[in-house]
Each structure stands twice: as C-alpha cells, then as structure tokens.
Amino acid sequence: MLGSVSLGTLGLTVGVLLTVVGVVAYAAGNATLNLAGFFYGVPLLLAGLALKAAELKPVPYREVPTPEAIAGRSQATPTQTQIRQDVTRYRYGQEAHLDSTLASLGLSPSAAERPVLVAIAERLTDGAYTLILEFDSPAVPLEVWQSKQAKMQTFFGPNIRVTITDEGHGRVAVALIRE
C-alpha cells in the first residue's frame, strides 16, 4: 500500500500546507502556530523535494492481469513475487528498475546504454505463472540478450525457465516462467 503512494508528493503537499499555515500565522501575529508551521513545514517541504528528485516511478502493466493470472500468483516463486512487488512501487535512490540485476547479468555496459524496464505483464503459460519484463533496449541487441539466457535462468533462481523474445522497435521481453 505505501509503495503505491509517492512519498515525495506527500512530503511536498504536507510541507507546502504547513509552510502556508506558518506564513498566514505570521501575518496574523500567532507566534505559536507560526513557529510550528515553519518548524515542520519547511523541513517537510525540503524532504519532499529531495524525495521527488530521487523518485523512480512504478513500472506500468502492459495489460491488465486477468483473474486467472492473479490467481496464478499463488504458484509464483519468491523471486517472481519480489520482482513484481519491487518494480510496481515507488523506489528512491535508484537510477532504474533492476539496474543492479542488469549489471550482474552483463546487460548494462553503461548508464547510457542500460536497457530500461518499460512494462510488465502477468499471464499463465501452459498453466504456469509467468512474469514478463519488457525492456526498451536500443543499445543492447537481441543476440546479447539471448547469449545471457542460461545465466538468467540460474540468476533468477530454481524453478524458473527464461524465454527472450523480440518485441520490435528495440524492445525485448524476458519471460520468467514458473517450472
């Protein structure tokens, strides 16, 4: 629940509100409310700005998960569940979703060439829960992704089969299929 709320926006909203209350209280000569407004409002405003600057938005779903796919989450591996939860919430202090994972797999030669996770999808593949990660990858060709397929299978843990497909226009889909 908390991951679906932008802490930066929340901090900015509350900070601005308290700061405005402090300014109005100052103009009205209310020293206590003025002090509280400034004492809490300005730091919250600055914290909200800092969080907003370091904010990484959640990755959208390419398609709304079907009720069958949602029910299939019960058979998801802990790795699939962790990835889905991590990329669908606000993150702070990271440059991109799964940036350290891509670096570990050798798919991120530099920050400028790093593939960007642009969408996810959930479905059942032959009755098995499948989490699909869609990357915008203009600098890393499909052949490089395919050469890392075996490494991905061991990286994402036991009971996972990885398939890689070309989605066109520089996009690559990585399907993590529960075995």
Automatic annotation (TrEMBL):
Pfam families hit by this protein: DUF2854
Keywords: Membrane, Transmembrane, Transmembrane helix
Domain of life of the organism encoding this protein: Bacteria
Transmembrane segments: 7-29, 35-54
Name assigned to this protein: Tll0792 protein
